[in-house]
Design brief:
The protein is mostly helical and about 70 residues long. It has one domain. Helices cover about 90% and strands about 0% of the residues. Keywords: Membrane, Transmembrane, Transmembrane helix.
Length: about 70
């Protein structure tokens, strides 16, 4: 049996980077929503925080949908 170590390392690296990026993007969305809460308490406007949070969550959903599309097709 022959194992292509270079291909295995490549797949591992891409999946690790993708996972870290997706988790980081989701975390940014959660942080933006928490900024909305603190802005509401202080009486400020939080439209930019909410827009950023929704953009982060939409990008996460798009990445997950693309992954599912790749697996199914």
């Amino acid at each position: 049996m022959h194992i292509d170590w270079q291909a295995l390392a490549s797949v591992f690296g891409v999946s690790l980077l993708s996972t870290v990026a997706l988790v980081g993007l989701f975390t940014l969305g959660i942080v933006a929503l928490s900024k909305r809460e603190s802005a509401s308490v202080s009486g400020g406007s939080a439209t930019l925080a909410v827009t950023g949070a929704y953009a982060c969550f939409a990008a996460c959903a798009a990445a997950v949908a693309y992954g599912i599309f790749i697996i199914v097709s």
